[in-house]
TrEMBL record:
Segments crossing the lipid bilayer: none
HAMAP family the UniProt entry points to: Adenylate_kinase_AK6
Gene encoding the protein: FGENESH: predicted gene_2.346
Entry protein name: Adenylate kinase isoenzyme 6 homolog
Alphabetical list of SUPFAM superfamilies matching this protein: P-loop containing nucleoside triphosphate hydrolases
InterPro entries hit by this protein: Adenyl_kinase_AK6, P-loop_NTPase
Pfam families attached to this UniProt entry: AAA_18
Residues covered by region (NMPbind): 45-68
Lineage of the organism: Eukaryota, Fungi, Dikarya, Basidiomycota, Pucciniomycotina
Organism: Rhodotorula toruloides (Yeast)
Length: 187
């Protein structure tokens, strides 16, 4: 049982599935909902955090991304996640300790739609192929299922604004249920 007053949520998925957009909209929804607005909710885009806190060993030209130093990253995030009310947003999930995370949301998208989204971002062919194959093979979903308790991993489709709105509603309802189950009523 968690001693935190608020849960931590990890939104993960292949690049292009809508993690950052979901996280930003979830933050707004949680800050607006009367039952959750008192929490100090924070969206932590882990990719940005890696750059800001220099949790990397340098830029990788071939993959056009930072080579993440996982030890530095975990050390820096340890303090950030402790109080709860964090929405972590990153393309991988298996490195985060299970004790940190209360809900893992794995966003999924049809591979042809994903390819189109990544092309619009200007991804190189090798990144397009690698990410598309990862989505087809359900790599991140499998990592989540192997790394966390089955009951905290949820797979959600992310192909339309309507699906995103429905997903946000489901997660807000989950937070409300988590609070009922984990936090004693205050006098």
């Amino acid at each position: 049982m968690s001693t935190r007053q608020w849960p931590n949520i990890l939104i993960t998925g292949t690049p292009g599935t809508g993690k950052t957009t979901h996280a930003a909209q979830l933050l707004e929804a949680l800050q607006a909902a009367p039952s959750t607005s008192t929490a100090p909710w924070q969206h932590v885009n882990v990719g940005d955090f890696v750059k800001e806190k220099q949790c990397h060993s340098g830029w990788n030209e071939e993959w056009q991304s930072w080579d993440v130093d996982e030890d530095k990253l975990l050390d820096a995030l340890e303090v950030v996640q402790q109080p709860g009310a964090k929405i972590l947003d990153w393309h991988t999930c298996d490195m985060f300790p299970e004790r940190w995370i209360d809900l893992v949301v794995v966003l999924r998208c049809d591979h042809s739609q994903l390819w189109s989204r990544l092309e619009k971002r200007g991804y190189a062919l090798n990144k397009l192929q690698e990410n598309n194959e990862a989505e087809i093979m359900e790599v991140i979903l499998q990592d989540a299922r192997e790394s966390y308790a089955e009951e905290i991993v949820v797979e959600l489709r992310s192909e339309s604004p309507e699906e995103m709105e429905e997903n946000i509603g489901r997660i807000v309802a989950w937070v409300e249920a988590w609070r009922r189950d984990h936090v004693d009523d205050e006098p």
